[in-house]
Design a protein that fits this description.
This protein is 0% helix and 53% strand. The chain is mainly beta and 156 residues long. The chain has two domains: 3-48, no CATH class; 66-150, no CATH class. Strands 6, 7, 8, 9, 10, 11 and 12 form a seven-stranded mixed sheet that branches. The protein is globular, with a radius of gyration of 16 Å. The model is unreliable at 151-156 (pLDDT under 50).
Length: 156
């Protein structure tokens, strides 16, 4: 499966242009963004990304603070509630990380963290499978997992 599209209460799962399955969802998901991410052979994780994704990256702190992703499986870089500021022991952080801050994202076993929006950091370290969808800038980057930059998302 490569993407998901929502309309009129139905989430359509697609492989390219071919419909793989349809799911009738309870509640309203109009305006939500869905992400389809391959986790392993034959297993795809579907995320509702929620709010966030502002037009500009967060400023972060004036000092060089350390941040750790604490968000759910999917979320926006610019929401402070998705981060712990480990320098100040703030959980959640009072502001999202910015260009002065060191960032680490560790995906739990068996899932893929999907992070959207715009974000900057002085350094970015990822562990486990992480998808970045948006515009991100960092001074240095290291990973001990899979990192994917994608646009296989549907917003309706």
């Amino acid at each position: 499966m490569t993407s998901a599209a929502y309309a009129s209460g139905v989430l359509t799962l697609l492989n390219g242009n071919a419909t793989v399955a349809t799911l009738n969802l309870t509640g309203s998901y109009t305006g939500e963004t869905f992400a389809a991410t391959a986790v392993s052979n034959g297993i795809t994780q579907i995320n509702v990304l929620g709010s966030g994704d502002t037009g500009t990256a967060p400023a972060g702190t004036s000092a060089a603070n350390q941040y750790a992703w604490n968000g759910s499986i999917a979320g926006s870089w610019d929401l402070a509630s998705n981060w712990d500021d480990t320098t100040t022991s703030s959980n959640p952080a009072s502001v999202a990380p910015g260009a002065n801050d060191a960032v680490s994202i560790t995906a739990a076993s068996g899932i893929v963290d999907v992070i959207t929006g715009k974000g900057n950091s002085s350094s970015l370290t990822t562990s486990g499978p992480v998808v970045l969808s948006g515009q991100f800038s960092t001074g240095s980057f290291s990973t001990s997992g899979i990192i994917v930059c994608c646009r296989s998302m549907a917003r309706h």
